[in-house]
Amino acid sequence: MDSYPGEFTGHVLPLLFVAGLGTAATPAVPAPASASTEPSTTTPAGSPPIDPQTPQPPPDQFGPLLTALKKTLSAKRGFNIWDSSRGVNHDFHVVLVEKNVRFPPLKARPPSTPQQPLPVLHSPISPLTPSSPLYPDGIMAPIWIRKHREMIPSVFVLVLRLGEYSSPGGPLDLSKKEDEERVRDAELVQEITERKRTTVERAIKLAVILVCSRQLLDDPSLDSRLSLIRRQSGLDSRASLFVISPVPQSEVVNFVASFKGELYPAALDYYREHGRRVRRKRARQAPKGRLSDKGWNVRYDYKMGVFSEMRGEMEVSLKHYEDSYDTLVEMFSTPNLLVVRTKRWAEAKVLADCLTVKIAKIYLYLNEPSRACAQFNRHLARFRELSNIWGIGEQTFEFWSWLSKQYRLFAELVAIALRAGFRLPSLRPPPPPRPVPAGMPQPPSPGLVPPTILQHPGYYFYMAGLCAVQRRECFKTFLASTEPPIDGTPVSPAVSHESKVDHAEIIIDLYTKSYEYFKAHKTSRLSLFIASQIALTHFQAGNHEMALKFNERISRTYRRERWRDIVDSLAEISRVSALAVGDYPTAIRSLLGLLAPDSRISLDARAECAIELWHILETKEPSSEDAAVVDVDMSEVAPLFTCQAVFWRQTASVGEAVPFQVTIEAPPESKADALRFSSLALQFNDGRAPVVIGADGGESPEELANPTVTHLGSLGEPSQSQQERQATLYWLNGQKSIFTGTIARATEGELTLSMITLTLAVGKWTVNLAIIPDAAATRASWYLPQNGTDIPLLQPDPFSCSVYHRNLQVTAIIDHKAPAYLDEEFDIDIDVQNDDAVEIEVFLDILLQPGEDDSQNQIKVDERSSFSYIKEVPLGVLAPSSKLSKTIRLLSIGSPGERQLDVSIRAQPTLLGETSLPSTSSANSIPTSTEILQTLTIPAVPPIFASFDTHFHHRRRPGKHLLDFSQPDGWDGATEVTLIAKLCSAGPWDLDVVQMSLSTENAPQVRVLSSSLDGESSVILGWRPHEFFNAIFRLEVMPAISEDETSHPSLEVLWRRSGNETRPIRTSIPLVVRPKPLYPTITVRLPPIMRLHAPTSLTYRFSNPTERLLTLSLQVDSSEGFVFAGPRKIPQMTVAPTEERNITLTVIPLLVGPCAVPRVRVFEVDRLSPVEETPAGPTEDGVVQRKQKELPVVEEADVGQVVDQSQAHLETDLRIARGSERDDASEVSAGEVLARPFTVLVLPS
Question: What proportion of the chain, given as a percentage, has pLDDT over 90?
């Protein structure tokens, strides 16, 4: 924006004068000579004369404060193009002035004559004033804005010191102090009054800042003094007097911001009144002077826009600027108002350009970038039309110069806005409209209009650069079509100015700025393109060194992405520039790039490049020895040949020879026949020295076969000596050369041909062409020289060979005899055999996986044992063709199930010296370590399967009598249990049972009455699979004490596998014998036979082992085969705790044979209170009886069988599945005996 006045493009702020802070910048209007030539030792205005007898404050007491105020107020200087706050922060344009500064005169009277009356007064810069730069028909000059921005403030701030008197104290000193302060206050009032006289006539707000010490702030008389000073000096009652004492810098900043906020409304009122004055003048305007009415309208609208901008009213300012711009464009359309190529026409054109910037900037303020772009485009389109009318259209350099300035001006505006925090609009298109109902027209889809989209500044800088290029070309065309001026012939000012312009510098500057912005916005394509334009501009300007630097940086990307047209253009520019500066290595690289088959140049041009390349190598001298060697990476330039390297095998062992073929082909469109290479180097990636193949210079080009095959033999390992090899190293167009041989790699890794180097030695030049073989081809083949055919290679990656150390030849056999028994140390045998030719060392790792029931299983190897993992068990050193064995022992604990082991057998060669290697091996061919992993799943089963039948007797041991006070032994009410054990071997192996016994150590509630094992404790029994062994135990069990009783007797079995003489293994089989619960029992003692008609007594025993009183009722049912004497029903019978009672029933048989005795039914009666309602009625004593349940009556000799609950549920499920489920009424719980009639055999008498 330097080409336009800063007054027209900058943001205007309210002007604030601050006087009294020292020497200001150049004052707006110089003071009178008498005032400016006063000695520097004079007392500043507002300060009283210095009395030597009066104590004075230190001279530098207020120096830091005044310096801080000056620094804070003068922080923002110059014309700022962009203002982010726009009145929000109450910003002023602050100018530091002297106290005696003078304002410019209000009006200037033009000279008068005796015949004419006195003219009307006008402003010195008005078009009506003859001395004005705008006289007689000027519209607007920057000096008018400078006057309101630098010369006439809206607020004037006067900084003065408040007089202070300090004394030791006393009444006399107090009186003297008041007199002294009164004198100094009067002097302050006089100075303020003199300044106010100059500000009142211009309606400028006057404010005073009084500087005093901290002690004076605490003086009680300070308020009265300040009030008196304000009244006497005529200052406003609001925001006119401020006081500050020496404070830190941060408080000074707050003080400045505070008094700016207080003075800002006064500044707004000042410029608002100016706007009203201009509006009134525009409304009553009459033709004055030679300036047209439209010119005055442009002037007045512009003034009102400036005053609105100073007030921060952006919308109002935008309206006035747009009116001024539209009127000014109308004036351009009228030729008689603004004559083309005159001074006023040029000034108006500059004003129109700056108005466009103002309008666009305000639209950006209002966050309407599309309207800012629309204004800019409208300005360009309108003045393009006007330029064609004026005769400076698109064929002239003046138009393109102006258009370049416009784009640059707008680009700088957008750049300044972005630095100030403005954000570019999103380029994402708006969402499509919602679908409309059927039958209604579809509204148009929203879209983006490209001309109205605000781009980043790089786009506009680039457009300015394009216009600058067109400007240069038009000027060149103009010079070519115009005869040179003769001496003394006047030249047009535009042509004279244009001939002095450095077009290349302008274009490069614009392109450079555009490149920076495109790069910042991560548009790499356009960034590289603009960089190429910069290089082209340097080239056209003759700056070949800079052109070479730019081409070198940008050509890499274009080559890598194969933009051949651009690459060829850059190579041609680099060739010419390199030859111009004598950089022959760069010229050689460029010519080789143009010789590449991928280049888009013609064959004739490629042939000329080959001739030029050979000419440089033969005739040009290198500048130094280092410059004589030219290394060309053909992957960065362009591949001159097509190269491919393939391997016959995909994998190989270390030191093993692998066949390979290298194919180098010159495409038919290349000019490789002009090059004679001196050597060929094959560089493999295994660290070996390059395999160099020299030129044999044998056959002539006409005698070459196609393809030519060169056998390189065995390249061996890198440590082996390399022999000299030769081959034909020149290619005709379309010629193919194949190099074949074998190679061995000494280490592990991928074996590839990393680079092929062709060396061209001509004169003093050595050119090395580095070619990387193509490893991305989709098809690879192997050439057979015998029959001249190609066979395809089918491996996934034929361009590399994976080389590994071979694995050791080790065999591991793991054997075991599953299943394993619980509590047994199960043997697992491991046999390892070395089938390799080297000596190996073997290690064993074992991991025992945790069991499902978290049981602590254990593994043992030699002296080491663990519950989970045993690491690195050395098995020893194995010589070739030898083997060893190791046994692992597994101890299975807990429940049956599978045990899982992960066994790792790791073998590695022993590198103890050369003696361990076979004579035909090398150190690099030693095989690598080998690991054999195997997972073992071993089922663990119990050694003995046991099932038990438990029978308990209904008759208990008699309980202790109620009146028996002896100590109880705990066996009162005990139940006798008969236990039948059925044992067999659970596994497939024979067992030797050494000992078997019943242990009750952990079951104090159980004791053994008799056992069938008492006489067989020392007999060894041999059990085969599926053979059974039975044992009978007679036990006595205490009454149930609690439901949580968990201790049970166990069957202890000592066993071992048959044929094994190891220590027997103890297995405990728990016997679940639950104590019989204490509940009332009724038993009957029946005779085995009865005689017909013979009376027989049946004794019923009622036992109450509980601790509660038992109330029973019983009844006797009739029977056809018997009669009995006595009552049929006993309604109530009481049985005390631990009491047994007998009832005898005498019956007489009537029939012979099996007869059912009369059934006795016993009920337990619950006694309830009279208030509870029951189905039964009340008895005579008022107590209600209710039958709770029927008690079973069992025979005294019967026993009850304890059924396994899981087995009982399983049988029930099977019955349900078969559809033979019993009724619920017929189901009984385990151990329950039904109250069934008893049958007795009756014999004749």
Answer: 35
Q: Tokens 């009672």 label which residue?
A: 1141
Strand partners, 761: 766
Give the whole-angstrom CA distance, residue 876 versus residue 809.
Answer: 16
- Cβ pair 316, 347 in contact under 8 A: no
How many CB atoms lie under 10 A from the CB of residue 445?
10
On whether the CB atoms of residues 773 and 664 are closer than 8 A, the answer is no
Q: What are φ and ψ of residue 1056, in 5° steps?
A: -160, 165
Given pLDDT bands bounded at 50, 70 and 90, which one contains residue 1209? low
> What does the alpha-carbon distance between residue 901 and residue 906 come to, in Å, rounded to a whole number?
16
Residue 860: strand pairing partners: 865, 889
Q: Is residue 571 over pLDDT 50?
A: yes
Confidence of residue 255 (pLDDT cuts 50, 70, 90): very high
Q: Which secondary structure element, helix H or strand E, spans residue 846, and what is its range? A: strand 840-848
Q: Which of 477-481, 625-629, 689-693, 1192-1196 has the lowest mean pLDDT?
A: 1192-1196
Q: Angle, nearest 10°, between helix axes 584-595 and 603-619?
A: 150
> What sign does the dihedral 210-215-220-221 (CA atoms) show?
negative
Asked whether residue 48 carries a pLDDT value surpassing 50, the answer given is: no
Rounded Cα–Cα distance for residues 434 and 446 (Å): 11
Contacts for 1209 with CB less than 8 Å, ≥ 6 apart:
none
Q: How far is CA 1218 from the centre of its chain?
A: 64
In angstroms, the CA 431 to CA 662 distance is 58
Which helix (H) or strand (E) element contains residue 856? none
Q: Is residue 660 within 8 Å of 684, Cβ to Cβ?
A: no
* Partner residues linked to 885 by β-bridges: 831
Burial 219-246 (b: 16+ CB within 10 A, else e): eeebeebbeebbeebebeeebbbbebbb
Tallying the residues shown for the chain, one arrives at 1245
Average pLDDT over residues 662-683: 86
CA angle 630, 635, 641 (to 5 degrees): 85
| C-beta separation of 1086 from 1240 below 8 A | yes
pLDDT of residue 969: 66
Distance between CA atoms of 663 and 709, rounded to whole angstroms? 9
**Amino acid code (one letter) for 1192:** P
Q: Which two tokens stand for residue 380?
A: 């360009």
- Distance (Å, whole) CA 697 – CA 235: 109
- Cα–Cα distance measured from residue 669 to residue 602, given in angstroms and rounded to the nearest whole number: 9
Burial of residue 674 (CB within 10 Å: 0-12, 13-18, 19+) is middle
pTM confidence score: 0.64
Find all residues with CB under 8 Å of 497, minimum gap 6, and list them.
none
Count of C-beta atoms within a 10 Å radius of residue 966: 7
**Nearest-angstrom CA–CA distance, 904 and 714:** 40
Distance CA 269, CA 154 (A): 9
Specify which residues 243 forms β-bridges with.
210
The CA distance from 966 to 957, in Å, is: 17
Rounded-to-integer distance, Cα 650 and Cα 750, Å: 10
d(CA 450, CA 447): 9
Ordered alpha helix ranges (H), 391-424: 397-419
Q: In the structure, what pLDDT confidence band is assigned to residue 1168 with cuts at 50, 70 and 90?
A: low
- 538 contact partners, CB below 8 Å, separation of at least 6: 504, 508, 544, 546, 547, 550
Contact 759, 694 (CB under 8 A): no
* HSE value, Cβ hemisphere, 13 Å, CA-based, for 261: 8
Whole-number percent of the chain with pLDDT over 70: 83
Structure tokens of 1040? 């149930």
Checking if the pLDDT of 963 tops 70, the result is no
State how far the Cα of 1058 lies from the Cα of 1023, in Å rounded to an integer: 9
